[in-house]
From TrEMBL:
<dbReference type="GO" id="GO:0008080">
    <property type="term" value="F:N-acetyltransferase activity"/>
</dbReference>
<dbReference type="InterPro" id="IPR006464">
    <property type="entry name" value="AcTrfase_RimI/Ard1"/>
</dbReference>
<feature type="domain" description="N-acetyltransferase">
    <location>
        <begin position="39"/>
        <end position="187"/>
    </location>
</feature>
<dbReference type="InterPro" id="IPR050680">
    <property type="entry name" value="YpeA/RimI_acetyltransf"/>
</dbReference>
<dbReference type="InterPro" id="IPR016181">
    <property type="entry name" value="Acyl_CoA_acyltransferase"/>
</dbReference>
<keyword id="KW-0963">Cytoplasm</keyword>
<keyword id="KW-0808">Transferase</keyword>
<protein>
    <submittedName>
        <fullName>Ribosomal-protein-S18p-alanine acetyltransferase</fullName>
    </submittedName>
</protein>
<dbReference type="InterPro" id="IPR000182">
    <property type="entry name" value="GNAT_dom"/>
</dbReference>
<comment type="similarity">
    <text>Belongs to the acetyltransferase family. RimI subfamily.</text>
</comment>
<keyword id="KW-0012">Acyltransferase</keyword>
<dbReference type="Pfam" id="PF00583">
    <property type="entry name" value="Acetyltransf_1"/>
</dbReference>
Amino acid sequence: MFEKFKRWIKTSRQLRRREEISNILEVKNAVVSIKDADYFLARAQVTDVPEILQVEQLVYGATPWNESAFVQEIKRQRDRLYLVVRQNDRLLGFAGCSFNRQNNEAHITNIAITPAFQNHGIGRYLIRKLVRKAALLDMDQMTLEVRVSNTNAQRLYKKMGFLVKNVKKGYYFGDHEDALNMVLDLNYMKGKN
C-alpha cells in the first residue's frame, strides 16, 4: 500500500510539473511595441511553416531545415517554443528554442528576421522572450550556434551577454562553415522574473 502511495505522489508531482511547464511556455497572441513600431507576436503554428521557410530562404539563401523538421519542432509543445512576429499579416521573423530539463539547458535552435526588418529590435525582443521563459523554467544556461561569418548576429548576442564557449568546426551543412558555440549564464536571472 505504501509503495502505491509513493508512486501516486511521484506521478502527481510529475503531472504538476508538466502543467507548470506548459503554463510557462504558453504565449498569448499580442500586439507588442518594439522600438516604437507595433508587431503581432504569437506562438508558431504548423500553418506558419511555409512562411518560416520563406524567411529562412531570404536570410540564409537556402533553408537549413525542411518543412518536416519545423513541423515536428512546433508540435513538441512540452519542450519547444517557437515564436513568430508579424506586421500587417506578413511574417517578419521567428525564433525557436528547446528546453532540456535533464541538463537544465535551453538552446536557441534557430532565429531569422527578414533582411528589411533586421536591426529593428525584433531579434533582440524574441531572444529576450526566450531567455525569460528559460529563466522561469529554472534553466542554468542558454546556448546557440552562429556562423563565424555572421558578425552582426555575434555582436547582438554578445551585447545580450552571450559568451563564446568554443568553435564547432565544419558545423553547417552544405558549406561546412565553422560555428561559434555561445552560452548565456541564466543563473543571474533566477528570482528576478
